[in-house]
Design goal:
2 domains, three-stranded antiparallel beta sheet, mainly alpha, two-stranded antiparallel sheet
Length: about 230
């Protein structure tokens, strides 16, 4: 991971330079986003430790706790923006990547283990663009050459895989009508309780309607009122 702020800025400059070869920009982007994601992960651990220390110190640390939370929130927002921007750039550059970067070279850039490349190629062929298949399949191919020479999981994905997931999450949050409602009938979460937060911060839970079966074979759905969530 890049440890110098100057080197991070240099990597970002290279990644943003459209005059450079696309392969070089990809490498620089991966270096930069890996650093940004690493800083966020480390910062989250530090935040939790600091907050726990302040809570143990007693109620007179409330203002310090708020300051720590605000700082963590700012870092989280900055990381979110960087990840979403990178994921969006990858999506826009997918066609150019297919045209300009051969499959094996792309695998080299993404550190895909050679023993996984036959399978990676089969997966990639099922997607519109090669890089989509290498990154969207749970992040199991990116950095597989560095992860005990094995496969990664979605929760231990490489930097580009993480960025693509961020970009998709951001898209779904800002375009809720673009995907079917998973809680609607026939949806994967139909019948599951839904939690949401009101403007005042109160969290509610909306339980699914109660289906009443009548003796004549008909049914009736009784909608339940939202309940305040206790935990």
């Amino acid at each position: 991971m890049i440890r110098s702020p100057n080197r991070l800025h240099k990597a970002i400059d290279i990644a943003s330079d459209e005059a450079r070869p696309l392969a070089v920009r990809l490498i620089a982007y991966r270096m930069a986003i890996r650093c940004i994601w690493g800083i966020r992960c480390l910062g989250l651990v530090t935040y939790r430790q600091k907050l726990a220390e302040l809570k143990r110190a007693g109620p007179f640390t409330n203002s310090a706790q708020r300051a720590v939370r605000d700082q963590d929130r700012q870092q989280a927002q900055a990381t979110w923006s960087a990840m979403v921007e990178t994921g969006g750039w990858l999506a826009r550059a997918s066609a150019s990547i297919d045209e300009l970067i051969p499959f094996d070279q792309l695998c080299d850039i993404l550190a895909v283990n050679p023993v996984h490349r036959a399978e990676a190629r089969e997966v990639a062929e099922q997607f519109r663009h090669t890089i989509d298949g290498l990154l969207w399949s749970g992040g199991v191919f990116e950095d597989s050459a560095h992860h005990r020479s094995g496969r990664r999981t979605r929760w231990d994905a490489g930097p580009f895989s993480v960025a693509m997931n961020f970009a998709m999450n951001d898209f779904m949050l800002n375009n809720p009508d673009a995907v079917p409602d998973p809680f609607a009938p026939d949806g994967p979460f139909y019948g599951a309780p839904r939690r949401y937060q009101a403007d005042d911060g109160t969290t509610f839970i909306q339980r699914p309607g109660l289906t009443v079966h009548r003796a004549d074979g008909s049914t009736r759905v009784i909608e339940r009122k939202p309940e305040v969530s206790r935990g």
